[in-house]
Fold this protein.
Amino acid sequence: MIKRSSDYIYAVARVRANEVNLLSAADVEQLIAAEDYKAAMRKLADAGWGDVEGVTDYASYLEAYFAKTWNLLVEIMGDVHEFDLLLVKNDMQNLKAALKGIVSQHDAKDLYVQSTVYDTESILKAVDERAWKDLPEFMQEPAMEAYTVLTETGNGQLADAIIDKATLERMLYLATQTGSSTLKELAERMCATANIKTALRCANTGKSKDFMMRSLCDCKTISKDKLVETALEGAESVLNYLEDTEYKVGAEKFRESTSAFEKWCDDILMECVGKARYTAFGLDPLVAYYIARDAEIKTVRIILSAKTNNLPADVIRERVRALYV
């Protein structure tokens, strides 16, 4: 049942109190300007990110830090199924890891992601036993199809594409079940940008029409058929098509650089939640806080990765994402 806006008063108040801890543009600039990785980590500690002294595996640290955001939402909301579309990608990532672990006969536990909709151990058990019907219904067909592709052809790219497409389709469906206009717009933009990325990647690698049709999902703001048609002609044809859509800027950014394009894909998601900053009630401020934390984590990951690779500050600035605050 869709809740009323007034049902979120307490949760919104808690989120507003936590928003003050989000990194500001000034904080990010200090991280970028830090002399090296250790100095950047000290800046994070100063910004309230806890004891990071001696942390060398920043990826695991950031994943654990982001999990705290989800734990907060669970605490203040109780029933968090309205966020399922933001988390289901983690379940599908774990499904991919489990399938590849079976085929390669390697333990894939290091690839599993925290904060999921479904119990991860149940998914792993179903995959391990090939008990596809024990998986959530929307996972069953793509899991079987991906498993068949992996075992019969060894085509890991196609197997990933099949599950990625199912993920996007699930997100679009879940968006229709919420009362949040922000979630609906987010799901549409996530799917559209994922389709654009896939079409461009397929164009550059010469993928077949069948591969692309099995990889792209249907969405409202951009034509799947047109993306496939143009991708068969090459990346430039895809970009020319984008210029006639609301994703025109994406074509400009891609021509500029792939990093500028990836940044644009993330930044247009932040645009969706920007107006929620001025919303006093309802689900949207909670969605905005989750997306804001996600963008913040991506920005910190980019900076720390750059620091470990000794990249100059100007290069880092070009890659950091737009922030909520």
Summary: The chain has 16 helices and no strands. Residues 5-319 form one domain.
